[in-house]
């Protein structure tokens, strides 16, 4: 059996990690909020600051919170009707620029607390023209209230541990035809940059059980005046009881002999990329254990996960 890979792959001494550590999330002027209404308003402001002009309809969002001393007894964010777009907006900053823009306060006061229950939902949220139905809930999230020398206050996550585990669940559902249309649009733009026109795309996902599915892709492409062809790809995907993801039976082909020959040159790389299994829980903190992952395929594609 192939040894499960940790994902993402660990960095080596020759390739040090460049991803900046996430800093505290700013929530306005100090001191920290002392009632739920104030906290809810600050959460809404933080969402608006994070998404900027990429979000529309944020006034439709419902945000509610209850405080119990320093602890957040509950926080509920409902983004139903909100639209998030990534096309036509300024490019995302580089990792270095993002690190500079993050709030990095000189902490003058720190207070440990727990978010006993946090719920995020949207029925539906539109992301890049794709309606997404989302429900996520987590219990027992530890964090610190941090106050900076600049007079601002924020929250900083504390990593879960065996003594302080986190439980919860999440469910994401999208219309299958809508997902294919979105993928078609994105892929068309990418291929066009390579001088290839995507003239048709069909993607079919068939459930083979609660943790298994087969995927079939049938695309029609055109390059220049003389070259046009269909390309087919198939694969099977499974997640076992140990929460290890495997991709098998990858096939690439085309009725066009020239395109088929070109696909043959990349087949080895595709097989190598999919040969290693992916341990979905490898990089989760000690206090977070992935207990189950489910895939339901019908008119909608639904992925659900549960933390122990």
Could you characterize what this model shows?
The protein has 308 residues and is α+β, with helices and mostly antiparallel strands. Helix content is 19%, strand content 47%. The protein is built from 4 helices and 17 strands. The chain has helices spanning 36-51, 95-101, 176-192, 257-275; strands spanning 5-6, 25-29, 55-56, 62-68, 71-78, 83-84, 107-127, 130-148, 152-157, 167-175, 197-207, 212-223, 227-239, 244-253, 278-279, 290-297, 300-307. The strands form 2 sheets. Strands 2, 3, 4, 5, 6, 7, 8, 9, 10, 16 and 17 form an 11-stranded mixed beta sheet that branches. A hairpin with a 2-residue loop joins strand 4 (62-68) and strand 5 (71-78). The radius of gyration is 23 Å and the shape is elongated. The chain starts with a strand and ends with a strand.
